[in-house]
Amino acid sequence: MKVMSFNILADRRTWNNRRNGIVDIILDLDADVVGIQEALDTQRAYLENALVNDYTLIEFNISGNYDNPILLRNNRFTILDQGNAIGSICNGFDRYITWLLLLDSVTEEEFYFYNNHYCISPMRNKETHAINLAELIDQHQLVSNRTAIAVGDLNARRNTSVMRYLLNQVPINGIPNPVNLDDTWQIANPNVNRPPTTERGASIDWVLTLSGTNVTDASVGDSNGYSDHFPVTATFDL
């Protein structure tokens, strides 16, 4: 089962020139679940129509331009539960964690999928989002012990307090991380440095999962200029 995180760049002015390329990237990488970031209302509408034969676009009716939608491969998943939670405040607007509890008809396994877009600054806002994500995952694990996959543009490099909290359980302001998360890239490519996930050379887009989850592959693709972020994928044997 393959998942992807892809920030498609919220820019209405250039969207008409980029949209077919974005669709082609999604189809070529052929993920089963895709967390999308920076999808404005017009962009979401286009993706929904252009991908209708392959994917269903799940929206969360969040106020504002962004919605953190999730694409699901048609006829493979049953949505058992879904929701959203505030991650942080970013420039006066809420940033949300959108999530689904899914039943995979191929593997007959259930799993949680979380989609995120952290604020670019300041760091304390990103730290708040990371804490809220970890606590949400923990809440779900206490109720339903299932595989959890968290994706998104976290706007955080590996050596930041945000990623040390998420991946090394280093507390933030004395607040512990209640869940053990791993970077899927590191699991699948243990001896290879994590490549950049943006055109400017930063590695800030992630696919994380609970420790002990079987990850068979992880990759960082190329957006070919259609977005300033690259698509990030991971494949799981659930």
TrEMBL record:
| Residue span(s) of domain Endonuclease/exonuclease/phosphatase | 4-229
Give GO terms: molecular function aspect only.
catalytic activity
Where would you find the membrane-spanning parts of this chain? none
Pfam families under this entry?
Answer: Exo_endo_phos
**Superkingdom per UniProt:** Bacteria
Would you tell me the protein name for this molecule? Endonuclease/exonuclease/phosphatase domain-containing protein
